[in-house]
Structure formats: C-alpha cells, structure tokens
Amino acid sequence: MADYDFDVLVIGAGPGGYVAAIRAAQLGLKTACAESRETLGGTCLNVGCIPSKALLHASELFEEAASGKLAKLGIKTEAVLDLDAMHGSRKDAVKGLTGGIEYLFKKNKVEWLKGRAAFTGADSVEVGGRTVRAKNIVIATGSSVTPLPGVTIDQTVVVDSTGALELPKVPEHLVVIGGGVIGLELGSVWKRLGAKVTVVEFLDQLLPGMDAEVRKEAAKIFKKQGLELRLGTKVTGVTVADGRATLTVEPAAGGAAETLTADAVLVAIGRRSNTEGLALEKAGLSTNPKGQIAVDHDFATGVPGIWAIGDVTPGPMLAHKAEDEGIAVAENIAGLTGIVNHDVIPGVVYTMPEIAGVGLTEELARERGAVKVGKFPMLANSRAKTNHEPDGFVKVIADAETDRVLGVWIIASLAGTMIAQAAQAMEFGATSEDIAYTCHAHPTHSEAVKEAAMAVQGKPIHI
Ligand code: FAD
Ligand code: NAI
Questions:
Q1: Mean pLDDT over residues 236-241, rounded?
Q2: Where is the FAD/NAD(P)-binding domain (predicted)?
Q3: Contacts of 171 (CB under 8 A, 6+ apart)
C-alpha cells in the first residue's frame, strides 16, 4: 500500500461508480471516487431516472385531474398546470438524492476527488490537478446522448433528454426522434401536459429488444393515448428558424420526403459509452468496435488492476445493472466472489401503463427450443379493473420440457413493481408451476402474474 494513495479509485459517481466506491469502503478498502459533475449520482440521479420519474409521476396526476379520470371517482377538481412548481419539485427530488450520496460518501469515508479524471499510466490518474496512484481503478464513466449526424442540439428548440426535462413551457408540437425508452417516457410527459407529440421511429415497431407482442400492444396503447406514431420513418434533416424546427422525414425504406414542423424536437436515438478524454491508451486499454470497454465475467479489463462497470461496458444501459456490477466489482477486488446474472436483468419503461420484461422474448426463446406461453389480460384482474387500469397483460414464457421460466413480459400500471417477482422467480430457477402455486395476495395486480403462470399450465381461473 505504501506506494499507492488508494486501494481503489473509481472514476465516475453514477449508480455504478458510487455503489462500487461505497461497497469497496465497506469492505475496508481505502477508496476514492473521481467525479467531474458538481453533484454525485451520475446520469441517473441528475438528468436520468430520477428527474424523468418526477415528471412522469407529476404529469400522470395532472392528466388524471385534467382528463376527468379523478372526477369519475368522485373527486372534482380544476386542473391548472404550474410548470414552474412541477420543475421545482423535480429539482428538489434530484437535490435530495444527490445530497444523500454525498452524505453516504462521508459516512463510509469515500474521498470525492472533484474533477475530470484521465489516466497517466496503468495505475495512475490525474484529477483536479493532482496525480493519484491506486492499486485498483474502476472505470464507471457511463454514457451520453448519441448525436444524430447533421442535427445540432441547441437545448432550446432541438433538445436531448436533459433539455427535454427542463422545457420552460409546454410545446405546442413536440417531435420525438426515436421510439425507444426515452422518447416514449418523455414524449408521454409532454403529451399529458398538453403538447401534440409525434414520435418518428426508424424501425417498423417501437421499443427494439422487447417482446414482439409487447411492442405491438404498446404501440396500440400509445396511439389510443393520442401519441402520433410515424414508424418506419427516418429524419433526414432538421433546420431551425425563428424558434421553430422544420424536419425532413422520409420512409426508412426509401420514398417521397415530407416535412414536419415543431416548436420542440427531442433527439433520443440511443446513448454511447463515455471514454473520450480518459486517455485509455496511457493505461494500455482500448475500446471495442462499439466504443465500449470490454470486460470479463469479473468486470476485469485486459489490464491487471483496471476494471469497468455500467454503461461504459457492453449490455443494457440501466441503473440497476450498473449498481449490481458496482457491488460485484468491489467484492471481486476485495477477493470475494462478486457475480451478476446478466440473463436476469429486468427492464422497465415508465409510461402509463408501464412496460416491463425480464429474460428472453418469446421470439428468442422459440429460436432456442420448444416453449409454452401463458397470458393473462389485466382486464380480468380484479384490482386493475377496479382501479380503471384495464390495459395490458402478463405473459409468462416457460421451457416446454422443464417448465423453467425463461421470460416474463408485462404491460400494466404497476408492471415495474410486478416484474421484481418474476426476476426473483427466475433467479431461483422457478418453473411456471412454482409461480402458479405460490399464494398471491388478493386483490393485487400481481395476481395476474400467477394467473399467467397458471395459463402456462393450461388452467387459469379468471379467463
Ligand atoms: P452514469 O450514471 O452515466 O455516471 C457516470 C458518471 O461519470 C457521470 O456522473 C459523469 O459525469 C462521470 N464521468 C464521466 N467521465 C468522467 C471522467 N473522465 N472523470 C470524472 N468523472 C467522469 N436507467 C434505469 O435503470 N431506469 C430508469 O428509469 C432510467 N431512466 C433514464 C432516463 C434518462 C432520461 C436517461 C438519460 C437515462 C436513464 N436511465 C435509466 C439509464 C441510467 O441513467 C444509466 O444506465 C445509469 O446512469 C448508468 O450508470 P453508470 O454509473 O454506468 O453511469
Ligand atoms: P433506445 O435505444 O431505447 O431507443 C432509440 C430508438 O431510436 C430506437 O427505437 C431506434 O430504432 C431509434 N432510432 C435510431 N436512430 C434513429 C433515427 N435516425 N431516426 C429515428 N429513429 C431512430 O435509446 P434511448 O431512448 O435514447 O435511451 C437510451 C438508453 O437509456 C437506453 O439504452 C435505455 O436503456 C436507457 N434508459 C432507460 C430508461 C428506463 O430504464 N426506464 C429510461 C430512459 C433511458
């Protein structure tokens, strides 16, 4: 240790980095975390998961009041939007949680090295004008918005997700480029607050990577909610004049171009790993063809003592994946066995209804062998029906021979919460019969998971 300033230096204080740092410190390792932002918590807490969920929640309540949904339940109210106050509440949520990480760093004696870190060697990094040496370095630098060639993000008319969280007024017409997670979540926010929203998606369906039936049903629900979907369409140019944008779009397969005008454009076509400025070459590291840092099962890079986790590495770009990798890498560094089961990482889209999945899609499962599929509609779930939340279904995919659950897909108001039981069941190697014979409390949305598992067995009760 004599030669080293730290046992562990983590670069980046997002959900991957801050969790790795805290866990390493808990395990008795002298730990520092370099972060260039003014606040800790990374993309997730500052400009991602947390502020987007604050607006999703608030806009859902506004819509329930404005659309007359509350009145139907006997709650009469006049809905008046105070966007400044809504933004204030979002900022408070971010401030509280980012401040909480700072408190946890102090509590666990993790030193925050403020500034942008760059390698100066395989065990040394320069940050904030200081060069530090660490026995282990964890790269957790996350990701940032993928730019669309030829389209300039000015954060006024043409915005990325960060700009879309902070729009000072509700746009009349918001065009979202990209029908993925960000486009649908933030598109939903501004739709509920009164904007016309058009989603332009290059592929012929929304939400790539999700189960095909779920993607189709989701598109149906979003259309019903009034989102205009332009699938199989590409944006070939965006010009801005006098505060308005003109977009040129054409069929992805080729064909006649047309123009759309909008007072706000959200570019949400994916995110890419942050490695620029890290001087990886000085540590003997390079990126894979996708610009990510490749790691092995233990999150070790090719250079001894250098590890990587989270969005900067291959795999889904999700906060909980980064967090679990943060814990695992710290445990591996401490000589324990840190494991993440990458086959069981749930994904949730926090629209209303929510859309969630874990494990294989039906398509992928069928490619691998014979399967049994059970489905149960939320319309037949007593709690969802009572709460006027009839949209969606639960789908359980099981191996035809062993009955082991291979994947679970849910569209339901509480899908993000319900998917946890599916992930846990899969982690324990459950069969669909195990779920079907587990007693579920009544009346809950989760009973739909049990009934979908019963449907795999061929014997649901309520349909
Ligand atoms: P990040 O959170 O990106 O953190 C990396 C940190 O490293 C940053 O703070 C950055 O400033 C810092 N950094 C980078 N380079 C350096 C350097 N050289 N020196 C010092 N510091 C550096 N995921 C979910 O699971 N659920 C959600 O609901 C969800 N919602 C999202 C909503 C939006 C709008 C966006 C954009 C993303 C959302 N995500 C969500 C994705 C989630 O935010 C990321 O997967 C997660 O933050 C990745 O964590 P990370 O620790 O790998 O990186
Ligand atoms: P995404 O990968 O989810 O979706 C991007 C979409 O843009 C795709 O459907 C793609 O086909 C489309 N696209 C690409 N190029 C296009 C073009 N030129 N024209 C039209 N469409 C085009 O990426 P998104 O929404 O930007 O999110 C980035 C990441 O952030 C995701 O990987 C996601 O995991 C994470 N995230 C997670 C959330 C959650 O867990 N709830 C919420 C928000 C983001």
A1: 96
A2: 6-326
A3: 190, 195, 262, 263, 264
Q: Which residues are bridge partners to 411 per DSSP?
A: 355
Does residue 163's CB lie within 6 angstroms of at least one atom of ligand 1? no
pLDDT tens-digit map of 247-299 = 999 999 999 999 999 999 999 999 999 999 999 999 999 999 999 999 999 99
* E strand intervals along 263-315: 264-267, 271-273, 306-308
Mutate to test the pocket of ligand 1, among 18, 43, 340 (most ligand atoms within 8 A of CB): 43
- Cα separation of 200 and 251, whole Å? 10
Confirm or reject: Cβ of 180 under 6 Å from ligand 1. no
Maximal CA-CA distance, the chain: 70
Kindly compute the dihedral angle of the four CA atoms of residues 193, 153, 347, 206, in this order, to the nearest 10 degrees: 80
User: DSSP class of residue 144?
Assistant: E
Q: Can you give the pLDDT at residue 253?
A: 95
CA pair distance 197, 186, nearest whole angstrom: 10
pLDDT (tens digit per residue) in 423-433: 999 999 999 99
Structure token pair of residue 153 = 């993000």
Residues of the chain with CATH 3.50.50.60: 6-145+272-333, 158-268
Instruction: Give the CA radius of gyration of the chain.
Output: 23
Q: CB within 8 A of 85, min separation 6: which ones?
A: none
Ligand 1 near 116 CB (within 6 A)? yes
Pick the CATH number of 158-268 from 3.50.50.60, 3.40.50.300, 2.30.30.100, 3.90.1150.10: 3.50.50.60
User: Measured between alpha carbons, how far is 23 from 433 in angstroms, rounded to an integer?
Assistant: 37
- Which amino acid is located at 142 in the chain? G
ipTM of the complex: 0.99
Per-residue confidence (pLDDT) for residue 2, from 0 to 100: 54
- Which of 342, 388, 442, 462 is an active site residue? 442
| Per-residue pLDDT tens digits for 125-163 | 999 999 999 999 999 999 999 999 989 999 999 999 999
Q: Structure tokens of 285? A: 């590291």
Whole-number Å distance, alpha carbon 180 to ligand 2 midpoint, is 4
Cα 333 versus chain centre, distance: 27
Using an 8 Å Cβ cutoff, are 139 and 21 in contact? no
Superfamily of structural domain 6-145+272-333: FAD/NAD(P)-binding domain (3.50.50.60)
List, by residue range, all CATH 3.30.390.30 domains of the chain.
347-456
The DSSP letter of residue 353 is S
Give the integer Cα–Cα distance in Å for 399 and 407: 10
The gap between the terminal CA atoms of the chain, to the nearest Å, is 65
Looking at domain 347-456, its CATH class is alpha beta
